[in-house]
Amino acid sequence: MLVKDYMTSDVVHVDIPGNRDDVLKILKRTGISGVPVLKNKKLVGIITRKDLLRKPEETQLGLLMTSKPITIGPDADIREAARLLVSHRIRRLPVVEDNKLIGLISVADLIHAIAQMKIKDEIKDLYTSTTFALWEDTPLPLVGRVMEISGVDAIPILNSDSVLQGIISERDLIRHSSIEDSVGVSDFSNGTDDDEWTWESIRDNHSISFGISRVQLPNRPVKLAMVKNVVAVPKNSEVSECALKMRRSRVDQLPVVNGDKRLSAMLFDRELIRALCKEDTE
């Protein structure tokens, strides 16, 4: 099972010099979580949804992207791809041959492979993650901040009766975000009464206005942006069964429920691909 058999060959990318707003439009339109950055047709970085949400005022791709990304060759085994994705906690690997970008293999591509492998291991505590939840009336800007602090990609949403109502993910935040332009003022005045016509006196008594463009989340409750048709799984579900549900539902995570259908954990695709690393050691 080789990388070239599961990678995406038609890769959406952006070029330096480029525009942050164009990246945002691509992520909104396609629903993908990141794109490679090229300069003179050579791979120089990766820019993701996290980068846009963490640096809402930055517009330069060179300052937003992760430079010198980890890559893999097309003839590598997908288990090697899984090891790299898990160990570096990333979601995609550019596939490079002769210094040329020829594809991209992502966590979602490996989930596709796992769905075909019929791995019977139960997810239980091997692949599930402890989680927390937010109330359905939590404002979206606060949800974004919680995601940034916690480092999670998605959060379950509960109502006031602690019943699972939906899931909010980075994809949903990007879909509801917009570009907001404003004007900032930098005040150089230090309150001195120096009348001498010098650079120091100009500097000490003047302010400068400048434009600010940032990625902005609307101040509305998360229940208006979350995905409501949630597919949940019990703890005794099998690995490949869960991978198939993720693929069919086109989601990156599944809530894990106990016997009375109460939320107990989360199953993230980035954790589930660890099953490939386990298979490699057996």
Structure description:
This protein folds into 3 domains: 3-117, CBS-domain, CATH 3.10.580.10; 124-176 and 219-238 and 249-281, CBS-domain (Roll), CATH 3.10.580; 180-211, no CATH class. Helix 5 crosses helix 13 and helix 6 (107-117) packs across helix 11 (239-249). It has 282 residues and is of the alpha/beta class. 35% of the residues lie in helices and 27% in strands.
Summarize, please.
This protein is of the alpha/beta class and 282 residues long.
How does the SSE layout of this entry go?
Layout: H1 3-6, E1 14-15, H2 20-30, E2 34-39, E3 42-48, H3 49-54, H4 61-64, E4 66-67, H5 78-88, E5 92-97, E6 100-106, H6 107-117, H7 124-127, E7 134-135, H8 140-150, E8 154-158, E9 164-169, H9 170-176, E10 178-187, H10 199-204, E11 207-216, E12 233-234, H11 239-249, E13 253-257, E14 263-268, H12 269-272, H13 274-281
Helix pairs in contact: 5-13, 6-11
Q: Segments where pLDDT lies below 50 for 5+ residues?
A: 181-186, 206-213
- The count of DSSP E runs of length 2 or more, i.e. the number of strands, is 14
CATH topology name of the largest domain: CBS-domain
Overall pLDDT: 83
Shape: flat
Task: List the secondary-structure elements in sequence, H or E.
Answer: HEHEEHHEHEEHHEHEEHEHEEHEEHH
State Rg.
Answer: 23 Å
Count of individual domains: 3
Task: Spell out the key features of this protein.
282 residues; alpha/beta; CBS-domain; 3 domains; 4-stranded mixed beta sheet; 3-stranded mixed beta sheet; 14 strands; flat
